[in-house]
Amino acid sequence: MSNLLANLNEQQHQAVTLPSQHALILAGAGSGKTRVLTTRIAWLVQSGQASPAEILAVTFTNKAAKEMHARLAAMLPINTRSMWIGTFHGLCNRLLRAHHRDAGLPQLFQILDSGDQLAAIKRLLKTLNVDDEKFPPRELQHFINGQKEAGFRPHAVEAWDEFTRQRVQLYQEYEAQCQRESVVDFAELLLRTYELLERNEPIRRHYQRRFRHILVDEFQDTNVLQYRWLKLLADEGREGGASLFCVGDDDQSIYRFRGAEVGNMRDFEREFRVQNVIRLEQNYRSRGNILDAANAIIRNNSDRLGKNLWTDQGAGEPIRVFEAFSDADEARWLVDEVRGLVRDGALRSEIALLYRSNAQSRVLEHQLFTAGVPYRVYGGLRFFERQEIKHALAYLRLIANPDDDTAFARVVNFPTRGIGARSLEALQDAARTYNTSLYATVPHLSGKAGTVLAQFVRLVEDLRRDTARLPLPELIDHVLDASGLRAHYKSEKEGQERLENLDELLGAGSNFVAEAQADAEVLAGDHALLADFLAHASLEAGDHQADQGADAVQLMTVHSAKGLEFNVVFVSGLEEGLFPHENSILEAEGLEEERRLMYVAVTRARERLYLSFAQSRMLHGQTRYNLRSRFLEEIPAGLVKWLTPPNPRSMAGGALAGMGGGYFKPGASVAPVAARQARGTSAHLPNGLRIGQSVAHAKFGQGVIVAAEGSGSDAKVQINFGPAGVKWLLLAVAKLEPV
DNA sequence: CTCGCGAGTTTTTTT
DNA sequence: AACTCGCGAG
């Protein structure tokens, strides 16, 4: 036990050894949060205060759950399998499988990922003949998920206006469709489990008695429903309920957009009368300059719980800032810098290239590829989201659950077997009349459509029969052949990679079996393991990226970098409109979340931090001219070393060609010209103004002309004023001074 | 019914 | 720039 607690600082020690009461640990970036959480669990078990079966630990990513499990297994000499460690979604899946009857679900229910859900909504709109212009599927998806995450079933939604009433109606239809098809989306996993526990007292009591210690990681990212779920399990904080140990950092809350509610931290403190609030402020990760910059940035946010990170590791190097002429220029510089670091002995895997949005990775990848630097991109298209994998999974899903209409619709005519829109329409209509799934409706259909569809149904039945006794990998292998998927991709010109991915699916199957056997908790019955595998595929979209072990530069969004750390970090694209993102700039809440994102980005670095931005950038096929990010101005000048001459005139003026620090190569295209051509506007506006030109406005301050429209007295220009926003101004009216 | 082309739209972030 | 969707020819 003593060695368990060795090397903990005072606050960490205090947190780990708190009595079994509710506790809130405010853990700053790099302050040893994961260590405290895992050591706490180990300490509880080792000191005899809790048995492993009494522990429930909730994380946000599967990766974090796995890591926690591994660390605990290393710390404790006993079997840790009886602990429940997982993501909210993973744990809910487990509960719903165990109590599927009480939850009103068949045992082999399927899980819809976001893409599946969107497809299901589109299909719903089509069958109901709803105008998808008026109800854009994406928007509806967002609406439905939002309601579920707030805990509202359709009848509970307050709809004051006609539009909302109609959307609620669609929400209800969507629910009915899901129930009919035995499928469950992400939000439904949570809501369904919550309702199960709320309504079923014996089950609720059972779990309340079982879990004496509930520990939550990344508590700042919980949404309303997740918090209520935790409260329910902890018996609302009543005497005799479990003790809740929540670890989080309000400054790192970056998922507000998908319903995360930082307010949960304050609510928790109040509602559970939390006596133990501990701040972990000593940072073991970053050098002083980096930390000072992070502190200075986050200080601009209001309404924080308050925390200031410090380190005893010394100031370290200054933060390097680079201004590029264009995004390509930025990428070239960046790759050169990376090569220099590697030449000096740095590990590529210790260098991270961070950006705000996935679209930005393209330029970086291009330059890395050209320079022959090995790299690895996180995020983007995940393994289980590739179309060929989705197709294969759809066949597997039909085997496990033929009523899954989403899966049915996906592969009924893939590979093409002469079942067109006509036949499908007839089938959909019939399915509505009989109120059965597409699959179950097929026998009701006569005529030509009936014949081809019956053939497809027979194919699926054969698949089910022939695979009933097969181990998972062989099962998948058989399906790939018998469905015709392999043959189809073999004949396709670009199909080679897809074939390889399909083979990799076999590998994923084998891995899953190996892990499931170790886990021992496998469902009984035919194809039950298959259902487990499919749930796994939905919940864990797959970090199946190339060459885990290879020494490669790491590329990812700031979001996916959360929780990670690197010796060297580059944050690129620090421009107004990009980071902070233009969609978030207008409301204060959104801007503060962007700032937390910046805080997360900066605190990923241990030794060296680079920040860069470009005067012009290709986005959506158009050249845009951005001002440099306000977050750069929030870093005290004394911490910064400019690699390019500081450009005080404003922030990046696009018209100021040649300001790329001399890095801009002769012959590189001049972005303003490209923009003019792309937009088809006149090359020169009156008064010598042009696109990319920096201008000053009496009220809005400095800005950059990003677009122009019309001519003569109608001539308008769009100007990005940074903090003051992006505005269209009439040239005839607005007083603009070139800068 | 299938395939190919062109128009139109998109993108912030993800369990 | 890349992807999706709808339309028309075969």
From TrEMBL:
Transcription as UniProt keyword: no
CDD domains found in the cross-reference section: DEXQc_UvrD, SF1_C_UvrD
Q: Which GO terms describe its biological process?
A: recombinational repair
All copies of domain UvrD-like helicase ATP-binding, residue ranges = 6-287
Instruction: Give the residues the record marks as binding ATP.
Output: A27, G28, A29, G30, S31, G32, K33, T34
- Signal peptide position in this chain? none
Q: Which GO terms describe its cellular component?
A: cytosol; DNA helicase complex
What keywords were assigned to this record? Answer: ATP-binding, DNA-binding, Helicase, Hydrolase, Isomerase, Nucleotide-binding
Q: Which reaction does it catalyse?
A: ATP + H2O = ADP + phosphate + H(+); Couples ATP hydrolysis with the unwinding of duplex DNA by translocating in the 3'-5' direction
Q: Which InterPro entries match?
A: DExx_box_DNA_helicase_dom_sf, DNA_helicase_UvrD-like_C, DNA_helicase_UvrD/REP, P-loop_NTPase, UvrD-like_ATP-bd
Q: What is its EC number?
A: 5.6.2.4
What positions does the domain UvrD-like helicase C-terminal occupy? 288-563
Task: Give this protein's Gene Ontology molecular function annotations.
Answer: 3'-5' DNA helicase activity; ATP binding; ATP hydrolysis activity; DNA binding
Q: Which PANTHER family match?
A: ATP-DEPENDENT DNA HELICASE SRS2, UVRD / RECB / PCRA DNA HELICASE FAMILY MEMBER
- State the family named in the UniProt similarity comment for this chain: Belongs to the helicase family. UvrD subfamily.
Q: What is this protein called?
A: DNA 3'-5' helicase
In the record, what lineage is assigned to the organism producing the protein? Bacteria, Pseudomonadati, Pseudomonadota, Betaproteobacteria, Rhodocyclales
Gene name, per UniProt, is uvrD
